[in-house]
Amino acid sequence: MLLVIILLALGTYLLRLSGVLLRDRLALPAPVLRLLPAVATTLIIALAVQSTVSNTPGFGGYARLIGVALGAVLAWRGASFMVVVITAAAATALLRLLGVA
Amino acid sequence: MSLGVVLVGMSFGAVAVTAGLPSWAAVLMSVCVFAGGAQFMAVGMLGAGNPYAAVFAGLLLNARHLPFGLAIGDMFRPGLPRQLLGAHMLSDETVAFSLSLPAGRTRQRAFWWLGWTLVVAWNGGTVLGVILVSAVGDPNRFGLDATNPASLLALALPALRDRETRNLALTGTLVTLATTPFLPAGIPVLLSLTGLLVLAPRLLRNRARRASGVESTMGSGVASGRLPSAEPVEVPLEK
Fold first, then answer.
1. Are B208 and A31 in contact (CB under 8 A)?
2. Which pTM value belongs to this model?
3. Between the CA of residue B173 and those of B167, B170, B210, what are the distances in Å?
4. Nearest CA in chain B to A65
5. Alpha-carbon distance B211 to A33, whole Å?
6. Mutate which of A34, A59, A84, A95 to disrupt the B interface (most B C-beta within 10 Å)?
7. Which residue of A has its CA nearest to B53?
8. Is the backbone of residue B174 left (phi > 0), alpha (psi -120 to 50) or beta?
9. Per-residue exposure over B195-211, b if at least 16 CB sit within 10 Å of its own CB, e if not
10. What share of chain B in percent tops pLDDT 90?
């Protein structure tokens, strides 16, 4: 685990630093640069949906699914970050209080 | 924005400890990695017993920091020490905020100010989250397990207004969901990029065409109006 943290920290820092240091020397093709944000977004959305729907192993329950879905709707409609996160957590907690698994 | 980062830091601390990480590991990760999305991803995969995927997916997610550095790296001059320190503070928030300001002293000052604020907010938030979990026990009672996916969606959903990004992300998410019951944790999320194999050639062509179109008419108001504002890496590339 410590090794995972060290490798992740080191790799992340090298990615950040190489961009800063290579700024004047490296010319990535513009289309590749434009694709990177879409790749990052895909990974993030896939992870978010997966961790909403499933626990390891199996289905993760309706309370969180509904809570996060509510947050997602608010996010899509332009609600602020805080509102999205607090609504999702509060709705999930409320549903669990009401006995929804 | 800083308050939001404190809250995400808190949920990271809580999520990390809930996933089975010791408190020191959660705090160490926040201090050393300093990248929310990758940390959540790594913790999820560590909790699922897949350390290789934790590193690989985390680094893949952080690959965007390279163009970030290319985009605003000139703000850290003069001197290597400043570049070394500034590189660690590159994040979605600091880069987006910096690029929203005119280049020069103002932008430089804003970057360092926000950078230090976020270092305090993120790491302080993580410590608070770790303490919170040990104080209240099962954090899921408060719906804290919903904060991780909700915060990722809050950050990433606006990018789906771009049609190509949306196609890629939705295809990928379907692949991830379809493979989750059958494959070891961590792999399905990486498989979300399979959509790239199908879409990338067309995507690159489209974007290249659009880019050359913008360049050839650069200077006219219409063209600059078409520049997608959600892609901060483009701005300095115009130079």
1. yes
2. 0.67
3. 10, 5, 26
4. B146
5. 11
6. A34
7. A4
8. alpha
9. bbeebbeebbeebeeeb
10. 25
Question: What ranges do the domains of chain A cover?
Answer: 1-53, 56-101
> Distance (Å) from the C-alpha of residue B40 to the closest C-alpha of chain A?
9
pLDDT digits (tens, 9 = 90+) for B210-238: 655 544 333 333 333 333 333 333 333 32
- Cα gap B111→B90, rounded to integer Å: 9
Using an 8 Å CB-CB cutoff, list chain A residues near B177. Answer: 49-50, 53
Structure tokens given for A96: 């669990």
Reading phi first (left if > 0) and then psi (alpha if -120 to 50, else beta), residue B104 is in left
**Beta partners for residue A54, in sequence order:** A59
| Placement of tokens 């692949």 in the chain | B175
> B150 with A68: CB under 8 angstroms?
yes
User: CB distance from B92 to chain A under 8 Å?
Assistant: no
Residue B223 CA to residue A8 CA, distance in Å, equals 40
Cβ–Cβ below 8 Å for B180 and A63: no
CA of residue B80 relative to chain centroid, distance? 25
Complex-level ipTM: 0.82
How does pLDDT run across B118-172, given as a tens digit for each residue?
999 999 999 999 998 888 777 778 887 888 788 778 878 888 888 888 999 999 9
For residue A88, what is the nearest residue in chain B, using CA coordinates? Answer: B146
